[in-house]
Design goal:
Layout: E1 2-6, H1 10-22, E2 26-30, H2 41-44, E3 54-57, E4 67-70, H3 72-83, H4 92-122, H5 128-148, H6 161-170, H7 184-194, H8 197-204, H9 209-212, H10 217-224
Parallel strand pairs: 1-2
Antiparallel strand pairs: 1-3, 3-4
Helix pairs in contact: 1-3, 1-6, 1-8, 4-5, 4-6, 5-7
Length: 229
């Protein structure tokens, strides 16, 4: 059994989608980031960076004590390796393909799209430089993704955790000020993944929570600077 500490955001969706794809039983523990749950001392013991998602695996493969993990990319690698799916552990070259695109998302698309969302929608004042900088960088990154998908179905060949990591951020292209018509291969890929039953189920976890707990400018500032809202 997996305990999933979660809120319906792109990083949270990565893990709920993967767990649904793996058909692994899990229990969801809401971490309401609009109320500052991520700063609670009990959550800090699981996720020392005060960010969700995080998991506790109550039955690790080695049969030992439970394992807790934070950071979405590390969680995805751990779960995929444990269950032997969506990550080619026995093929060094195929594994390298998945890894580079997983880290491309973790180190590039996620942070840049997150800043884009902040400056476009949550910043207490509109800063044209910030909006332009991050909107343009996200556009550049989607150009990279679109070219990658021009001659293959998924980013690393076979459907993998790399696709599951990228998709929840890329599906929010409109909020990032992007024109999807300029990325036709990405558009095909977005639609193809969106139609997967496990993706539909993973995306539905916590549906409506964010609407009931809107993030105000004050809360957004608190989250950005690591303070309680």
């Amino acid at each position: 059994m997996i305990d999933l500490f979660y809120w319906p955001t792109p990083n949270g969706w990565k893990i709920s989608i993967l767990l649904e794809e793996l058909a692994v039983p899990y229990t969801v523990h809401p971490i309401n980031i609009s109320k500052g749950d991520q700063f609670a001392p009990e959550f800090l013991k699981i996720a020392p960076n005060n960010r969700m998602p995080a998991i506790i695996d109550q039955a690790p493969a080695d049969g030992g004590a439970s394992i807790s993990l934070f950071e979405s990319g590390a969680i995805m690698q751990y779960l995929a390796r444990k269950h032997g799916q969506f990550y080619p552990v026995d093929d060094v070259r195929a594994q390298a393909e998945v890894d580079q695109w997983l880290f491309w998302q973790v180190g590039g698309l996620g942070p840049m799209a997150g800043q884009c969302h902040h400056f476009r929608h949550y910043a207490p004042e509109k800063i044209p430089y910030g909006i332009e900088r991050y909107t343009n960088e996200v556009s550049r990154l989607y150009g990279v993704l679109d070219r990658r998908l021009a001659d293959r179905e998924f980013v690393a060949g076979a459907y993998s955790i790399a696709d599951m990591a990228i998709w929840p951020w890329a599906k929010l292209w409109e909020n990032q000020g992007q024109d999807l018509s300029t990325f036709p291969h990405m558009q095909r890929w977005l639609e193809q993944i969106a139609a997967r039953p496990a993706v539909v189920k993973g995306l539905a976890v916590g549906e409506g929570w964010r609407e009931k707990n809107p993030v105000t400018d004050e809360k957004a500032r608190a989250i950005l600077f690591g303070q309680k809202a």
